[in-house]
Amino acid sequence: MPDRGGGPTGPRIRVGRPSRRARTLLMTLGVLAVLAMLFVMFAGFWTDWLWYRSVRYSSVFTTTLWTKVGLFAVFGLVMALAVGLNIWLAHRLRPPLSAMSMEQQNLDRYRMGIAPYKKWVLLAITALVGLISGASASGQWRTWLMWVNGVPFGQKDPEFKMDVSFYAFDLPWFRFLLAFGFAAAVLSLIAAALTHYLYGGLRITSPGARATGAATGHLSVLIGVFVSLKAVAYWLDRYGLAVKSSDFKAAGNWTGLRYVDANAYLPAKTILFFIAVICALLFFATLWRRTWQLPMIGFGLMVLSAILIGGLYPAIVQKFQVQPNEQAKEAPYIKKNIDATRAAYGIDDADVQDYGGKGDPEKKSDQRKAADSAASYRLVDPNVVSPAFQQLQQERKYYQFPATLDVDRYTGTDGKPQDTVVGLRELNITGIPKRNWINDHFTYTHGYGVIASKGTNTVTDENQGTVGAPDFTESGLPTSGRLGGYEQRIYYGEKTEQYSIVGGPQKELDYEKNGEKTTSYAGRSGVDLSNPLNRAAYAVAFSEPQMVYSGAIGDGSRILYNRTPKERVEAVAPWLTIDGDAYPAVVDGRIKWIIDAYTTTNGYPYASRTTLGDTTEDSLTDNQRAVVAQQNQVNYIRNSVKATVDAYDGTVNLYQWDTEDPVLKTWMKAFPGTVKARDQIKPELLAHLRYPQDMFKVQRELLTRYHVTNPAQFYSGSDAWQVPNDPTNKDSSAVPPYYLSLKMPGQDDQKFSLTTTFTPNGRPNLGAFMAVDADATSTDYGTIRVLRVTSTVQGPQQVQSELNGVPEVAEFVRNLRGTDSDIEYGNLLTVPLEGGFLYIEPVYARGGSANYPLLKKVAVSYGGKPVFKDSLSEALNAVFGEESSEPPATTPPPTGETNPPPATGDSALQQAIADAQKAYDDGEAALKEQDWTAYGKAQEALQDALQRAAAAGGAGAEVGGGAEDGSGNSG
């Protein structure tokens, strides 16, 4: 061995092969590394399987998996065989001797280098293209399942008379096959050409013929296959015109044939199809005539035809036939587009009627009387009052409410449905007193209870709470109120994004009230972690090694994850588009999340497309409330599924809602047993189902143009509308739709509805009002009613600006600034009333001693007259100049700075004495606990009760006098 450094007596470093021990160690490490990589891959697959099995939707996992595997195997194998066969054939057809030229001598070195590894090179190339192609094909599993399970729509397109299912289910699959065929032909052609060149079948600089006869025939056949596929593409392009998008100035994003398509492009595609067929036959003929002269002439003719017939001729037709009389030429095609678009989005039955909008100024008395029953005016804005829920009902820092609450219907004290604002007290992981792995995932695992308040009024009595705060009908921890008994623990919610491990040795914190209460999860959801394999798999999947050895995990331990309602529904039904707003309801003693889901397609002929992400965005949209779209560009949508997620055990149920939807029927064939029949929806659940917001937003966006059914008027765009910006929001975002119980013209009773307004395109005045019956129990559910305003009426932005200019508003704002408070405007509600429109807007003050919004004023406008008063009844009286004969049942008493007159009589006296006794007892209890805050509130309540007793009669005066003497406050 040579010396490396050092002198004669220095150390010698031996250089050579590693020792056997080192080689064994390296090999062992390599094997372990490979096993680790394989286990990481296995962990993802295994945990997915365990989760789907735990939610009882394992058929979704297996169907999707085997479909992907099948597509991967079939198309990967076909591509590998196509490329490999052509490489092998090109090698077999190589010339026996190479030409004596510099080019071939240079190639000899590559041929000699590859010769010992030809089989391995062939296998490597075919494996690579096979893997890439298989992976690409597996991503088309939805397209395959829709094609193989497609059911007919029962509707035909107006041009080719093909069932709509051909465009929705068949054409996408045919286009994929065509694209795959093109890829296979091109890759085979490139591979064969390179092989022929490497082995001398093709020559560039060598003397003589540039290609052997065998190479000419082989490559000509491949080019012929490519041209044949081009012929098929021309034929399919004919049908593709029915779903082609184009920019049409009269209609924006247009879909379907126009005059130039039907009279120029369509015949051009047919002619090009026949030319491509002839050209392909000429290329195939080179098997007998070893020359490319005729095929190349044919190919050149096809290219020239594509330019002249497919490009120049349609441009000439558009320029000299269409543009001089475009409206008349396009009218039949505009009509087809209008009819198809209205049918595809479910707006073809929209009831559009003219509506004056101003009201009769001589009928103030009738208008005032009608205002009491026209709507249940929702003064509690779910988009504003969340901080009040947070301040008054949070109870602990580790609880939270969503920024935007939900509106539902529950039975009021009068036995009638009442609009109710609801929110769940969910877990807030960032509010845990001490953050660590055990607390984050074992101890703090769930939220607790539904908090609900009246939607039509707030607290008006200081004895019941802060004036202007939400009037809670369900509150406390644990909650109590009108909802009765129900399972209050919330393990699955919109804010619950972290995993939890429950049911094992480690106890969970249930809630804190007079000490900590603990619990252990008894639900059936989650994946069992008592199995060491499962623990190891989840430790890898969640990058948490403590799962493997932690003593907090043992028998009965289960891991809960994928805990948001939309996430769970999307996972078990990956073919559905999920509405952005999941909302909770108490049903049969359980909290159920209700999620609306849609089936969509992008292949409805002639129907214009919309982008779901843009169309459904408004001033309230955030990451939590954004639509979950499997396909963002669509031109057909149905609210086909109503889904529920149990907030305690995470059970997911999918119910068929639209029983006629062919897209849903197709998916139900692909995934049998996943969607339950509509008649399995219980009446208790049906009472809380409602018309979905995102569907409504899509429909209102389409109705801005497609309320017009006359082609000439549609072309001119003279009656186009737009969705106005939210007048209460500084951002330029669309106004959100509002749930509201109201009476539309011609209706006798209030209907729970979803409403919105329109303004004429580019103008601020009111153009139309739209409402849809949102009550799922109603026979008119889903009926869209549009009031088209025929006179000049103020729009939402104009009303808001006018209200801001009322002198009382300026005075109110000045007073707020003195108390370090800010003004917050609630939802500007629009209600049709006696031929006009009544605008109602709650106004909140936020800041000062209560750092949450309190309802202080109500703004009302009718007929261009804005008023700003302490209560809704005062505002209605002022705007109509009339007083109601009886107080409206749906409006609150005066809210704000004025107090009601003291009650008198024996009943008032007895109530005051009882309140005084309760306040005294509360004060004594607080004194024992040394809770000075509670003691102060009790003393205030006692003083108030004594004052009411004094005002009620003589006995009350004696009680009040005695108390004052005893406290030293009486003269």
Question: What composes the largest sheet?
Answer: 6 strands, mixed
Taking all Cα atoms into account, the compactness measure Rg is: 37 Å
Judged by helices, strands and strand pairing, the structural class is alpha+beta
Strand content: 15-25%
Overall geometry comes to flat
Q: Mind explaining what this structure looks like?
A:
This protein has 971 residues and is of the alpha+beta class. It folds into six domains: 43-209, no CATH class; 212-344, no CATH class; 345-374 and 708-896, no CATH class; 386-490 and 496-563, no CATH class; 564-689, no CATH class; 906-967, no CATH class. Helix content is 43%, strand content 18%. The chain has 27 helices and 34 strands. Strands 3, 25, 26, 27, 28 and 29 form a six-stranded mixed β-sheet that branches. A five-stranded antiparallel β-sheet has the order 5-6-9-10-11, covered by helices on one side. Strands 18, 19, 20, 23 and 24 form a five-stranded antiparallel β-sheet that branches. β33 (850-862) and β34 (865-869) form a beta hairpin. α26 (932-952) runs antiparallel to α27 (954-967). The N and C termini lie far apart (117 Å). 42% of the residues are buried.
